[in-house]
């Protein structure tokens, strides 16, 4: 009986596993997708679109970065590596949005 009480007490003391930033990742992707749609009629140059997307999604980017770094640090990753990983993922999402936008506003081939 005492062993059961001790075992239950020990399992309750275990730290919870970090939660992956699924919602923040989804929100960042949705923000970039919205900017692509919103800027289609503007026919911006690639650099101008990239700047507009970065500005428009700054809050979502920050939330994703913070939650990703917290998640990875919770998984025992060095903070510098976690920050680099978060920045890499954000850059990938942004680059994907830029490529989607550029392809979408390109004149059709004749």
Uncertain regions: pLDDT < 50 for 5+ in a row? none
Oligomer: single chain
- Count of discrete domains: 1
The helix-and-strand class reads mainly alpha
Query: What coarse outline follows from CA principal-axis ratios?
Result: elongated
The separation of the N and C termini measures 81 Å
Q: What is the element string, with H for helices and E for strands?
A: HHHHH
Percent of residues in helices comes to over 70%
How large is the count of helical segments?
5
Strand content: under 5%
Q: Count of DSSP E strands?
A: 0
Major sheet summary line: none
Mean pLDDT across all amino acids: 89
What is the radius of gyration computed over CA atoms, rounded to a whole number of angstroms? 21 Å
Please give a structural write-up.
Helix 2 packs across helix 3 (46-56), helix 2 packs parallel to helix 5 and helix 3 (46-56) packs across helix 5 (79-105). The chain contains 5 helices and no strands. It has 110 residues and is an all-alpha fold. Helices cover 76% and strands 0% of the residues. The protein has one domain. It has helices spanning 2-12, 22-39, 46-56, 58-74, 79-105.
What is the fold's blueprint, element by element?
Blueprint: H1 2-12, H2 22-39, H3 46-56, H4 58-74, H5 79-105
Core attributes:
elongated, single chain, 5 helices, mainly alpha, 110 residues
């Amino acid at each position: 009986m005492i062993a059961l009480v001790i075992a239950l007490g020990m399992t309750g003391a275990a730290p919870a596993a970090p939660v992956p930033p699924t919602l923040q990742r989804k929100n960042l992707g949705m923000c970039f997708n919205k900017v692509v749609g919103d800027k289609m009629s503007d026919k911006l140059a690639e650099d101008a679109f990239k700047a507009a997307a970065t500005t428009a999604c700054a809050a979502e980017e920050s939330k994703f970065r913070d939650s990703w770094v917290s998640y990875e640090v919770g998984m025992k990753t060095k903070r510098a590596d976690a920050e680099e990983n978060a920045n890499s993922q954000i850059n990938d999402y942004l680059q994907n949005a830029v490529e989607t936008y550029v392809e979408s506003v390109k004149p059709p081939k004749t």
